[in-house]
Specification:
- The complex is a heterodimer of chains A (92) and B (143).
- By secondary structure, chain A is of the alpha+beta class.
- Chain A has three helices and four strands.
- The longest helix of chain A has 14 residues.
- The longest helix of chain B has 13 residues.
- Classes of the chains: A alpha+beta (92), B alpha+beta (143).
Chain lengths: 92, 143
């Protein structure tokens, strides 16, 4: 299944821990067999969120976002990514 | 030298680290917010000396004051942030087994206060935890 990275610019941060968790949980609940949210990184300088997904296609990923999520952290850029494991470099 | 945790001695050692650590001074130079960390007993290990509250007045990269509070007898100071977790989760954060941001997202570390401010200042949160890890705890291996 292809992997995608979505780059979000955080426009508004949640005011409380509950709001933060509920917001992210809402995205998680919308995930399906067609799209799985794997993990996220935040660039602490720019407050951009880099989220990795495994999905049938980008459309399946987009179906996971409600309007609230996109208002708070609109998607700036999407791309399919190639995946590299580096552990094998330790092997001779 | 290790300090018992939680204790006034540990808190004083942490305050000393925060006030002498150049990296923390730089990273947290804009931080404005005191906090109280309430450490609770684990459900499967009731500790008679818990809960206890550790207060830290953190301001522009320095620690201006500390205090240790017993909820049964003392009135907790009103702090900008109130964090609460069982002792085992705090220890996991200190040993590096649990990431502090992940702990907040999963409520293993309960946070009351302006989460937006906290999330905008994640480098400060992470560096504060790094300083906590520098204070050796009696009977525990350092992270």
């Amino acid at each position: 299944m292809p992997h995608y990275v979505l780059v979000h610019q955080v426009e508004r941060f949640p005011e409380s821990q509950d709001e933060w968790i509920e917001l992210w949980r809402a995205v998680r609940k919308r995930c399906s067999e067609k799209a799985e949210w794997l993990h996220s990184f935040m660039d602490t300088k720019t407050t951009k969120l880099y989220c990795e997904w495994r999905a049938d296609d980008l459309e399946a990923v987009m179906e996971c976002f409600g309007p609230e999520s996109l208002d708070m952290a609109p998607i700036e850029y999407t791309t399919e990514i190639a995946y590299f494991e580096t552990e094998w470099l330790d092997e001779e | 030298m290790g300090y018992p945790f939680p204790s006034q001695d540990w808190l004083e050692a942490l305050c000393s680290v925060l006030n002498s650590d150049e990296r923390y001074a730089k990273v947290a130079q804009k931080w404005e917010g005191d906090m109280i960390v309430v450490i609770e007993a684990d459900s499967d290990d009731p500790a008679p000396d818990l809960p206890v509250g550790l207060y830290l007045d953190l301001w522009h990269g320095s620690c201006r004051g500390i205090g240790m509070y017993q909820p049964d007898t003392d009135e907790f100071p009103a702090a900008a942030f109130s964090l609460k977790a069982p002792l085992s989760n705090i220890m996991k954060i200190f040993t590096g087994e649990l990431d502090p941001v992940q702990a907040m997202l999963t409520r293993r570390l309960n946070v009351q206060g302006n989460m937006a401010y906290m999330l905008r200042n994640i480098p400060v949160v992470l560096d504060f935890v790094r300083c906590c890890r520098l204070v050796e705890i009696e009977g525990k291996s350092p992270a």
